């Protein structure tokens, strides 16, 4: 089976590993199946790397490293620009492959491909603007010269929920900075990563600059790469739990680490909010990717005066969503990634019910093929419910009520996470004042979406370290070097 990309090029549904520009089978005989969450059927398979393959990928990144770092920025960035153009050319096929292996609705997948491509355009523009600093020491005796250099071989580990964008959000700045890399995509959604790698090769990314490996033994394979002293950077996107483990492992070699981890976003609706806007934003913040997003609104905190009308309108919007296979045009809400994800959502909803939550719509898993959970709204939510503290990662909107601004801020910040917060009020001064008090790396003020390649994406508290996108995303792949220099007066 293959999915057509262009007339010359088809997406390989059974790719091997990409190491040093060669597509080669993993050392293990077995292959890793890729399953369509909508049909539960296998749609492809990928090679299964062991530790020797992982170290071969480090060798390849090492061989390519000096040449890529020395390539003039303009030349590197023209290749990045070509990557953007080719992803846009192949957008439809990439969107289909994302829907097929991840389950998300095609319209979400199309949005993801556009977002993924933009990282190459943005960093093709940033890569030629890397600057240094020059200052005079206060003593007047020497100059302080600061240079930014590529940090070196980078390990990129990505999750299944945005199989294209989470990869390009790392690859594009790494390449713009002059680094070579090894991408380890999520085992559930590897086909998109390999399809992107094919496109990068076509765009002229030299052999060994981007290597891609998949494995059924993630822990040992990632550990082996992190123990190799040639590897200088870990950029991880995934759960906070795995992020903590990898930070501990990176500490062994004191590897510079960027972490994009889980979220528990509050969505605050004040009594003076424009409710049309708030409902529109709520549907984006909750239902992009069927709720499987780190940025997903996880707790709707609504002022008592507007709680019932907001909830009624949210129920109407959620109930109107068409649930079905992601690849069908009519689908609004696709399948979740796997049966465990459905079980986890179901358990969280059942637990919320047991402590007093009321189901306003959804709330029951339908008997059908595919890993589906229905769009669900809960109200009368007590803050003792487990889902107040945990990522739901599914199409469930719990509504909590507050009475005062102070209470809203206290509830919003009552979590170990701090990725994003959403806030609706028509009073801009109030909105900015509250934004400053929210413990989050990003605040969406009267908007349901923050993601933008030109903006610094990232969290505080246990949602992460560092930023992706903007000029900051490239600096994460650069090391600062200070040269004290005297050249006379
Ligand atoms: P995950 O942590 O289970 O896996 C992420 C990646 O880490 C995958 O490639 C996986 O194979 C790998 N991995 C898993 N265990 C590992 C181990 N022991 N050692 C090394 N690597 C390991 O996360 P997921 O389920 O794929 O993705 C969902 C999570 O990602 C959610 O928590 C979500 O909030 C988070 N996420 C965060 C952002 C962000 O930008 N902050 C974006 C997307 C997703």
What's the helix and strand layout?
Blueprint: E1 2-4, E2 10-12, E3 17-19, E4 22-24, E5 31-35, E6 42-47, H1 51-70, H2 73-89, H3 91-102, H4 106-126, E7 133-136, E8 143-150, E9 153-157, H5 165-177, E10 181-184, H6 190-203, E11 210-212, H7 218-227, E12 231-237, H8 240-251, E13 256-260, E14 265-269, H9 275-287, E15 297-303, H10 304-319, H11 339-354, E16 358-361, E17 376-379, E18 396-402, H12 405-413, E19 420-424, H13 428-437, E20 442-445, E21 464-465, H14 470-475, E22 478-485
Parallel strand pairs: 9-10, 9-12, 10-11, 12-13, 14-15, 14-19, 15-18, 17-18, 19-20
Antiparallel strand pairs: 1-2, 3-4, 5-6, 7-8, 8-22, 13-21, 16-17
The structure holds nicotinamide-adenine-dinucleotide.
Describe the structure.
This protein has 489 residues and is α/β, with parallel strands linked by helices. The protein folds into two domains: 2-261 and 463-482, Aldehyde Dehydrogenase, Chain A, domain 1, CATH 3.40.605.10; 265-452, 3-Layer(aba) Sandwich (Aldehyde Dehydrogenase, Chain A, domain 2), CATH 3.40.309.10. It contains 14 helices and 22 strands. It has helices at residues 51-70, 73-89, 91-102, 106-126, 165-177, 190-203, 218-227, 240-251, 275-287, 304-319, 339-354, 405-413, 428-437, 470-475, and strands spanning 2-4, 10-12, 17-19, 22-24, 31-35, 42-47, 133-136, 143-150, 153-157, 181-184, 210-212, 231-237, 256-260, 265-269, 297-303, 358-361, 376-379, 396-402, 420-424, 442-445, 464-465, 478-485. Strands 16-17-18-15-14-19-20 form a seven-stranded mixed sheet, sandwiched between helices. A hairpin with a 6-residue loop joins strand 5 (31-35) and strand 6 (42-47). The longest helix has 21 residues, at 106-126. It is globular and about 70 Å long. Residues 4-8 have low confidence and may be disordered.
